[in-house]
Amino acid sequence: MLLEVKNLSTEFKLKRGTVRAVDDISFTIDKGEILAIVGESGSGKSVTSLSIMGLLQKPGRIAGGQILFNSQDLNKMSQKELQQIRGNQISMIFQEPMTSLNPVWRIKDQIMESVMTHMKLSKKEALARTIEMLDTVGIPSPAERANDYPHQMSGGMRQRVMTAMALSCGPDLLIADEPTTALDVTIQAQILELLYRMREKFGMAVLLITHDLGVVSEAADRVIVMYCGKIVEEANVKSLFAHPMHPYTVGLLQSIPQIDDESDEPLYMIKGMVPNPLRMPQGCPFSDRCDRCLERCTQEMPELQEIDGHKVRCFLYNQDSEGGRAQNE
Amino acid sequence: MLKYILKRILMLIPVLIGVSIIVFLIMRVFSPDPSPIVLGQHATQQATEAWRQANGLNDPVYMQYFNFIKGALTGDLGTSYYTKTPVVKEIFSRFPATIELALVAIVLASIFGILIGVISAVKKNSIFDNAGMLIALIGVSMPIFWLGILLIILFSGTLHWLPSNGRIDPLLQPMNVTGFYLIDSLIAGDMYAFKDTLRHLVLPATALAMYSMAIITRMTRSSMLETLQQDYIRTARAKGISEGKVIRKHALRNGLIPIVTVIGLQLGSLLGGAVLTETVFSWPGIGAYTVACILKSDFPVVQGVVLLIAFIFVMVNLLVDVIYAFLDPRIKYSKAKG
Amino acid sequence: MKKKYSANTDENLIQAAEYVEKPESQLKEMWETLRQNKAAVVGLFTICFLVLIALSVWVSSLMGKQILPYDPNYSDMTKSFIWPNAQHWFGTDQLGRDMFSRILDGTKISLFVGIAAVTISLSTGVLLGALAGYRGGRTDAVIMRVMDMMLSIPSILLAIAFMAALGKGIDKAVIAIGLVSIPEYARIVRASILSVKENDYVQAAKVIGSSDTRIIMKHILPNIISLIVVRATLGISTAVLDTAALGFLGLGVQPPFAEWGDMLGRARGFIFSAPYTLIFPGIAITITVLAFNLLGDGLRDALDPKSRIK
Amino acid sequence: ASTDTQPKASDTLIYAQGAEPRGLDPALVDDGESAKVMINIYDGLLKYNKDSTKVEPSLAKSWDVSADGLTYTFHLQEGVKFHDGTDFDANAVKVNIDRQLPPQVTADMPYATFVYGSVKDVQVVDKNTVKVNLTAPSTPFLANLAMVMSAPIVSPKALTDSKNNVNQAPVGTGPYKFVKWAKDENIVLVRNDEYWGTKAITKNVIFKFIKDNSARVVALNNGEADMIDGIDATVVKQITDAGNKIFKAPGMNINYMAFNTSKAPFNNAKARTAVSQSINVPELVKSLYQGYSEPATSILPAFMDGYDKSISQVAYDAAAAATAIKAAGLTKVHMITYTNPRPYNTATGQSLAESIQGYLAKVGVTCTIDSFDWTTYKQKVKAGDYDLAFYGWTGDNGDPDNFLYLLSVDDPTMNIALYKNPEFDKLIAKGVVTPAGMERNAVYTQLEKIAAADAAWLPISHAETLCAYRANIDGFYYHMTGVTPFAGVSKK
Amino acid sequence: MSEVLMEIQNLSKHFTLDTSLLGKPTVVLKAVDDVSFRIDKGEAFGLVGESGCGKTTLGKILVNLHSPTNGKIFFEGKELTALNDKQRRSYCKDIQMIFQDPYASLNPRMTVGDIIAEPIIINKLLPASKVEERVIYLLNCVGLAQHQRNRYPHEFSGGQRQRVGIARALAVEPKLIVCDEAVSALDVSIQAQVLNLLVDLKKEFGLTYLFIAHGLNVVKHISDRVGVMYLGKLMEIAPKRELYANPLNPYTQALLSAIPIINPEKKKERIILNGDVPSPINPPAGCRFSSRCFKELDHCKFKDPVLKEVSPNHWVACHLF
Ligand SMILES: Nc1ncnc2c1ncn2[C@@H]1O[C@H](COP(=O)(O)OP(=O)(O)OP(=O)(O)O)[C@@H](O)[C@H]1O
Ligand SMILES: Nc1ncnc2c1ncn2[C@@H]1O[C@H](COP(=O)(O)OP(=O)(O)OP(=O)(O)O)[C@@H](O)[C@H]1O
Ligand SMILES: [Mg+2]
Ligand SMILES: [Mg+2]
Can you tell me the distance from the alpha carbon of E75 to that of E61, in angstroms, rounded to the nearest whole number? Predict the structure, then answer.
C-alpha cells in the first residue's frame, strides 16, 4: 500500500461560513495502480489532491484525518520534510497547462530545477536528464525545444512538459488533476496515451482526477465517485461501469450522449443542481436530486458500505432496508 | 521589435505637435500679456506696443504658431522674454538638476517601494504588511510640498543635519561636464563634493520619492499577491522547492514585471512633482523655473520645456515597453507573431 | 484551447447560492463588503464628518449665521500670530484670523473643488473613453492621441498653465483640475469598455438588435460603474491634493476664502515664527486625502477581492 | 585620486538672494536682483554716496554742466581697463549711451528712456573727455547716471562679441569679475586684481538664489550663506537667536493703496477720505510688517529731498469714517491686488488687501477682493475695473521726481489712481527743470501736500531694507537703492 | 427535398493582426476560409472541430457580429451580405445566437426578466403591457419559474443561466438559432438538461439550429447533419448517421476515434494523430490537414482539396476521393 488516506476532511473558512470541501474520505492506492476520482465540478477532487500534496492555501486547512504515504503521515510533517517528498516521491500534473508553467523561465530551467533539487545532480547532468525526459514524453527535437519558453508551445506540448517535469525524479505516485480537460479531443487522446505509456515504463501509481467518465473507463483500474466532498461510490472500473450502484453514478452514466448510441431518445436527466456547499442539505447530499430518494435519505447520512468489493454510500443498498431490493433490479 | 520601436517613434511626432498646440493655445491665446513683466515698472504703452510688435505678438495666431514651428525645426526655440537668453540654453542649464533629482528619487522610491511591497505581500496581513501599507497610504495622502517643509524644519532648521536648499555647496561646485553633480564630482575625483551633493539630495529626493514610493509599494504588493496566486507558483511548490526559493525565483521575477510600467509612469509624474519639490527646496531645476515662467507668461520657455518633458515622457514610456518586452518573453512573442 | 470554466463555476456557485439567500442591490452588496473593512469605514466616516462640516458651514453662511467660533475671513490686525490657546485652538494667522475657523471653513472649498473637478473629468472622461472604446478605429485613435498628448504633460504643470491663463478662483481651479485629469478617466473607461465589450452579453445585445447607444448605456456603463466609482473616489483625493498644490503656489482661490493649500503657501514664510499656521492646514489636507484614499481602496477591495490594480 | 579640494571659506562671501537676476546687461534688465550683482561688476560714470543718493565721481573724475543745463562734460579716469583687457575711454561711454538712444534703442531696454530720455547726443571730445547734450534741462539726469540700471559702462568689445547682449557674459570695469552663472543656483564673481580703485578685500563672491524666505533663513543659520536679504519681520528673532546679525536700513520705496479716481464712488474726494480714515495705518503696518516697515506719512521716504515733517495723511478715525461712509451710501467696494510679495510689501498685496478688508468691514463696507499674480495684475490694473488697487514703487535714483511724477502720468499702469490734476502736473514739470536746492524741494513738498489733501493714494508704508549676515562678516551694507557692493566686505 | 433556410457561399473571414508601417496587412489570420454549405429549414446542422478552427467566427458572421471578408450569405433567398446596415438590422431577429459561456453572456446588472424582455422591447414586438406576460411564458418554456424573473443572473446556476440565454434568443421568434457550444461549459448532469430542452424547443417552435460544439457525442445527439471543420475549412459534411458510421475524411476518422467510450470492456482501436493543430496564421499549404494526416498522398501538400459530394448528401474535401 503506497498511499492511504484516512478520514480526511478539508475545510475552507470563509467569511460567510465554512465550506467542508472534502468530508471524511478514506481510500488507498497501491503501487503501480491507477486510481481515478470522478465527480462533478466542485465535488472536492482538486482539494483532495492538494491536501495530499500539502499545498492547500489559506483559507483552506486540513480539518482532520491522516494521509499516510509509505506509512508516514504527511499531514504531520514539517514543510521541510514535505519538500523532500514533493516533486520527488509524489509529483503532480495540473489541469491548466497554459498557466501552470512559469512564463518567464525556459522550460529546461523549470525541469532542471526539480531535478537538481531532488536528485542532487550537477547542472550538466541535470540538463541531460531534462532532455532525456522531454524525449520520453514525446517532444520532438527535445534539445532545442528545451530552450523554449512555455508560450512558444501548444497546450498539448506544455502538458507533456508538465508530465516530463513531474516524472523527472521518478516519483512513486503521480497525481494528475484533470490533465486532459483543457485540451482538444485529438490532443486529449495523445496525452492519455502518454500517461498510460509512462505508467508502463516507470511503474508509478497514478491518482487520476477527472470528471470525464470516458477517460476513467479507458484508463483507470479503480474508481472513486465523489459528490459534494464525499465518496459516494468506489469500485474497480469494470464493476463500476457494469453495475453502477449509486443513483448519482447511474444518472451520470445515462445522461451522457453516447457516441455509439443510435437512438433519438431524450437523454436521461438528473434534476436540480448541486447544493450550495455552505448549506449542505441534511442527510444524503444527493437526496434532493435523487429519483429514488427515501424518507430517511433527507434525515441522515448513509454510511459507505461494501458489497462484494464495491463500495457505495446509499440507503438503497442497506441489507436490512427495503432499498436492499433495488440491487436486484 | 525594431519595427515596433520605429512605429512608436513615428507616433511621437503627432503627439509633440499636439502638445505644442495645446501649450500654444493656453500660453499664447489665453494667457495674460507678458509685456508688463518683461518691460518693468517704466514701461509705457508705447514701449509695450513696440515690444509686442518686435516679438511677433501682434501677428495672427496661426502665423505665430507657424513661426514657432519653423524655429523649433531648426532647433531654435526662441529667446526667453524675460532673461533674453536663448531658451535652449535656459533649459539645458537647469535640466540636469531636475533629472538628477528625479533619478535619485525614483531609485529611492523603487528600492524602498519594492522592498516594502514584497515584504507586505509575502507576509500578508502581518504587522509588517499593515505597517507597510500605512506608510504607503500616508505617502499618497501627504501633500509633497508640506512634507518637504516638514523635512526642512526637522532636519535643517532644527537638527541642522542636512542642507535645506541648493544642489551643492557653491564652493565645491565641480566642473560642469555632464551637469549631474554626482557624476561630475566622481569624474573630478572629488569625494568631498560627491558627499556634499548627496547630502543636498537627501531631503528633496525623499520628499519627491515619497508619493512614488507609496504607489510602487502598493503596486508591488498587489502584483506579488496576484502572482502568488498563479498556477505556476503552485507548480513550483509541487516541485518541492523551498518557499524562499519559490518567492525569490518564481514569484518575484513575474511579480516585478508590471512594476516596470509603474516605475516608468512614476518617472513621468516625478517630473510633475518636481515642480513643487523644487519650489520648496530652491532646487535649481526646470520645474520651479517653468512655473515661474508660466506665471510670467514667458511663452518661449514654457513651450520649450513642455515639449522637452513630453518628449522625455514618451521616450520613457517607449523604453519601459521595450524593457517590458525584454523581461517578459511572452511580449516578444506576440510581437513576432502579431 | 478550451477555457477554464469549471473553476469559475464553483466559486460562482458559492456566491450564487448566497445571493439567493438575500438578493440585494449592487450598492448594498458593496456596502456589505465595505463594512468588513475597518479602514474603509474609518475613511467613510471621516468623509461624512468632513461633508457635514462643509455643509453646515456653507448652509449657515448662506443663512447669514455664523456657526464657526469666529468669522473665518475677519481680520483683526491687533491679533496677528497668536499661538494656539483656549480662545484660538489653532492660533491666528498673520492677519489675525482664527485658524481653527479657517480650517473648518476650508473643508468646504477642498471638498467642493475635489468633487466638482472629478465631476468634470469624470463626465468628460467617461464620454470620451466610452466613445473611443466602443467605436474603436479612427474615433479611438483621435481621442486617445489627444489624451496621450495631455498625459505627456505633467498634470500639475498643465493645471498651472490653465490657471495662469484663466486666472485665480475656485471655479477656475475646478476647471483646471478637472481638465487635466480627463485623460486618466478616458483611458480607464476605454480599457474597461474594451474588456467588457468582449463579453458575450454585449454581443448578445447586438444580436438582438440593440442600438449602440443602448448598448453603451445599458450594457456597458452599468458594468464599469463600480470601477468608475472607485476611480472617482481616489480621484477626489488627487483633486484635493492638486487644489492644495495650486493654492500653495498662489494660484488657488480668491481671497479672503480659506483654502488649505493657500494657507500653507502663505504660511511658508513663518515656519519658524508661527509653525502652527503651517502644521494645521497640512494635517487637514492629509486627513481629507487619506479618508478618500481609505474609502477608495476599500471600495476597490470590496469590488474585487483580489484587489487587482491595472 | 580623491583629494578634498575644499576651498578656504574665508576667501568667499556667499550672498543668498530671493530670486535669480534676469541678466547682467545693465541696459537690458530692470530688476533689483540683477542690480545686486551688477554693482560689483560694473562702474558707472557716477556713483551714489554710501549713505545717501548724493552723486560722487566714479569713472568720471569730474564734470561740468553748461549754464543752460543742456550740456554735460565728463572728464574720465585714465588708465582704466575693462575685465577683458580693453581700455575704458570716451568712446566706450559713447557706445554705451548710444545703444540706448534712438535709433539703436530696442523695446526691451526698460530703463533707456528713463535714464537717457533727455539725451540728444553724445560727443567724444578726446580719449578722456565726453560731452552729453540734452534736449531739455533735467535735474535728475546726474542722479540717473549713478544708477545700476542702464548707466554702468560695458566693454564695447564685449557688446560686439555678445551681439549687443551681455546678459550672460558681463564685462565691466568693476571690483569683481564675472566667472560663471549656474542657472537657478548661483553666480560666481572673482576679485578684479587690476581694479583701478580700491581693490576688494575678499577674493570670491557667490550670489546664491534661494527663493523661499524661510529657506534662506535656514541657509544663513546653517552657515550655507553668509548674508541674506529679503527677510521679513517674522524671522528676525530666529536669526538673532542663532547668533547672526540684522542689517536694517531705511528703504527708498512706498507701498500704497490707490483709489480709482476716475469713477464713482472714488471720484469723490470725500469718499476717499472716509475710507482712508477708517484704516488704522500704523496699527496695520505694525502687525503686518512687525516693525520692519515705517508707516508712511508721505509718499516720499523721510530721507529724501522734498520730504517734510509737516506733511500728514488723513488720520485714523473709525467713528468719523463710519458716519461719512454711511452718508455717502458706500457699502461695497471692489479691490484688486497682487499675490506676490514685492520689495515694498513683503507681506504680499493679498495680505494687505485682506487686512484692509478687515478695517472696512468694521465701518460697514464689504470688500470683494480679486487677486492676481503680478503679470495678470498689471493687465487688470490697465483695464481699470476696480475701486481700490494696491501698488508700490521703488525709487531708482533718489530724486523726488522719481516718486511724485507717478501721479501725473497718463499711463494707467503707473498712475493707477488715474489721478488728474493740472495743477499737480504743472508743478511736476517745474520740478524737473528746477536745479537742485531749496526751491526745488519746496516744489515737491507742495506736491506732497496736494496729494495728501486729495487722498488719491493712501500711503501705507516704507519698507525697511532688512538683511541678515553672520557674525563673522565685516563691512556689509545694503545701499538704499537696493544694491550690495561687496568690495569692502570681509570675512573673518 | 427540404427547403433551404440559409445558404453560405465561399464565406471567408480574415483577421489582420499586424500591419506594416504603411498600414499594409502583414500578418493575416484566416479564421474562416472559403466555406460553403447550406442549412435546411427545421434541421439542426452540427458543426464540430477543434479549438480555434473558426466555428465561433463562422457563427458570429451569420448573426452579423463579424462582417465577412468574402463570400455571400443567403437567408430565405435574400442575399444578406448585399444589404446595408439598416436593412440588415431587420433580419437580426430572425437569426439569434446562444453563447458558450453562461457566465459572460448575461448582463450581470440586469434582472433576468429584463434580459428576456429587452429584445421584445427593442424590436417593438409587443405593446408594453403584454411584455411581462410574454416573459413569463418564455420562462416557462425554458423551465424556469416565473417568480425568478426579478432575480439577477448571479443568483442562478450555469444551467439555469443557459436557459435564460435560450429564452432571450426565443423572445424574438427567430427562425435560425446559432448555438455556439451552448452546453460545453456545463457539468455533465446539467448538460443533459439543456440538451433535452433544446431538442424540445426545436420541435415546439419549428426552429432551425446551427449547433456548434467540439464534443462529437453531443453534436451527434442533437444534429441532423454534421459538418467537420479544420483550420477554417470545412472538411466533411454528411447526415449524422452516415458521418458517424462512415467517416471518409481522415481527420473525421481520427476525431471520432479519439472519443473515449464509456465502456471499459470495449477498448477500441485508436488513431492517435501526430503533433498539434497548426497555427491558423501560417496554415500548411495544400490540404490543411496534410501535416498531421496518416493517409497523406503526394499532392496533398500542394493542392487544396475542394468539397465534393461523393455520395448523396455526403460531401468530403479530401484528395482520397
Ligand atoms: N480557495 C478556496 N476558497 C474557498 N472555497 C474553495 C477554495 N478552493 C476550493 N473551494 C471549494 O471547495 C470545493 C471543492 O473544490 P475542488 O476544487 O476540489 O473541486 P473539483 O472537484 O476539483 O472541481 P473542478 O472539476 O471544477 O476542478 C468547492 O465547493 C469549492 O468551492
Ligand atoms: N477578433 C479576432 N481578431 C483576431 N483573431 C481572431 C478574432 N476572433 C477569432 N480570432 C482567431 O480566429 C481563429 C478562429 O477562432 P474561433 O473563435 O472562431 O474558433 P473556435 O473554433 O470557435 O474555437 P473554440 O473552440 O476555442 O471556441 C482563432 O485562431 C482565433 O484566435
Ligand atoms: Mg479541480
Ligand atoms: Mg468558439
Answer: 13
